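I hope you will forgive my troubling you with a question about protein structure. The record follows directly beneath this note:
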Amino acid sequence: MIDSILQWAGRYRYVFKPKDVPVLTREVAMKIWSDVREGWSAITATLDMGLTTEVIKYVSNVSCVDIRGECIELSRLSELKENYVYAVLGGDLVPLACYDETLRKYYKLKPLAPDKAPTLEINGIHMHRCEGIDPWTDSILKLKQLGGLRRAIVLDTCTGLGYTASIAAGRGATLVVTSEVDPNVIKMSAFNPWSRGLASRNIVTIKADVGRAVQEAPDSIFTHILHDPPRFSVAGELYSREFYKELHRVLKAGGRLFHYTGMPYKHSNVSILKGIKRRLEEAGFYVVKWSSSAQGFIAVKPATNSHKFQHA
């Protein structure tokens, strides 16, 4: 089973290589700046968005702070913008953001708090829920809908920053295959400290259009599927009956799927959710329930043919 998965995934596999560089937000930078102004020569701060803390030294004779051997002028700290994450590179503070002219998309890591996982923002749209919840907690909540993951073989259809894949691996999954098609998202993940779990040995990262790649996967190879696609208006093909049929095919009998949908058009009369539920059922899934807390559908592939769905 594992060998057949690795053979399939090997066609698209890439090795995720996290960048071990310090990162700062304006809030952390201003704390460092303030501590120096108060006379501290050694400051404790986080350089990985809350995962750890370390000591930064102020070098008074050149008016700079020593960040892991990089000399950053003190005045630069006060110039950082809010809502950006900066990497310490080559003695400079570089915003983790880029514009892709071909795709006409602007990508950036957006901090929500100095000690929380950031979200990814594409053309101003957050890739995680951020209102009243942080992205890491949101990812944990989504995975809870799949139940226990010990010894599970999981398909994570859309990697993003890799939070769900990392958490699944940390919760005992034997193997997690996670797919990302956008090279800019992969680039942002490499600099994001909270994405480093993607380098886990029980995670296989693939660079592929999952809608196409899954068509080549063997039958019944996954015990669980986490489907967290971009919004419907951006990636409608990942909400199609044809794609759901492929997910049904590669899931083992009795396997569980969680399909995050969010609350599309919650202020209008258009009901995308009814269509999603219907197409899941047409594809052969038994939709157990809608999870209001995780904002998605929990569904299973019946172990028998006892669940039949009739549609006009």
